[in-house]
Amino acid sequence: LERPEKHELYFNNFFASYDLLEKVSGKMIRATGTIRNSRTRKIPIMPVDEVKKKHRGFF
Question: Which domain of life does the UniProt lineage start with (predicted)?
């Protein structure tokens, strides 16, 4: 890409992973995706049950 900062990629949870988003970010391309719990590389993420109890936009 001639100007990667002008592009943004969106991934669904089938394709998205922490490694992929990190690699794309390293190429200066913005990316967004939903990551499955099994693909987080043990990054500490709040449990789903706890998140469901919070109001939208709590973070």
Answer: Eukaryota
